[in-house]
Amino acid sequence: MNIDWDSKTYGEKCAFVGEYGKEVVDLLTVPPGARVLDLGCGRGELTAYLRARGWDAEGMDASRSQLADAKRLFPKIKFFEGDIASFSVGKRYDAVFSNAALHWIDEAVQPAALSRVRAALRTGGEFVFEMGGKGNAALIHAALKEEILSRGGTYCHKFFFPDENGYSALLKKAGFEVRYASLFDRPTPLKGGDGIADWICIFAKNELAGLPEVSRRDAALAAQERVRNALFENGVWTADYVRLRMKAVAV
User: CA 20 to 30 Å from 52, out of 21, 81, 166, 193?
Assistant: First the structure.
């Protein structure tokens, strides 16, 4: 996972991540009581939702601040620290679930990450997930890049946003059979009068690192202005999200 999270700010500004993730849960067909790993669980809201749906769910995340909140909010659920690209567990799960986490993994280590997911699943186990897909937040990232470069900074885009064909190929190489794949636009309303700038400061820390810290918020606000005509309407900022939602079975 290639970002350090501010769990408090994330919880205040990004509740939409978990809410949209509930739709992804519907792809799971394992029976009640099945063991499910929530991969990249964050603050644990979806892990708790999985439990409420009747599964024996546990959560894993690389962020200690997010895990601390998860354990505080849901003390009866098991949460543990682990990196998606290198984690190892001493048991097999019936399903692995992941929402809005896999696009944070560098493209070069995606095969290793999928290999670790396969190792955590029993044969026939389900891997259900959603991540940013090809074209995700393209307008925002283009505006941020222009703004950073205009200020003499350096720009490095760390996200991995694949399409369904490319990621299906990776899954097959890792030992999965793809059962469902959908790449779709999902315009996502953001909270606050500076919703895009807040989004940039939360999700694009790596990109903003190309500027001195003192100027990063100003750059985010300036990038927001660059997309005002496209992403602001009736007092609401909307992120131009594209999502990749998939289900695969371990073979």
Answer: 81
Residue 44 to residue 99: CA distance in whole angstroms? 11
Question: CA 226, CA 143: separation in Å to the nearest integer?
Answer: 6
Please list, in sequence order, all residues whose beta carbon lies within 8 angstroms of the beta carbon of residue 237, skipping any fewer than 6 positions away.
189, 190, 192, 194, 195, 196, 199, 224, 231
Sequence-ordered alpha helix ranges (H) in the chain? 7-13, 15-25, 45-52, 64-73, 110-120, 138-150, 164-173, 195-203, 205-208, 216-226, 228-231
Token couple for 164: 């369904």
- φ/ψ of residue 192, rounded to 5: 90, 160
Which tokens hold the place of 146?
């222009």
Please report, as a single letter, which amino acid is at residue 188.
T
- The one-letter code for the residue type at 181 is A
The Cα–Cα gap between 32 and 76 comes to 18
Of 213, 34, 236, 208, the C-alpha closest to 128 is 34
Beginning with the edge strand found earlier in the chain, give each strand of the sheet holding 121-132 in spatial order: 79-81, 56-61, 35-39, 93-99, 121-132, 242-250, 176-185
Domains for the chain: give ranges and CATH numbers: 7-137+159-190+240-250 (3.40.50.150)
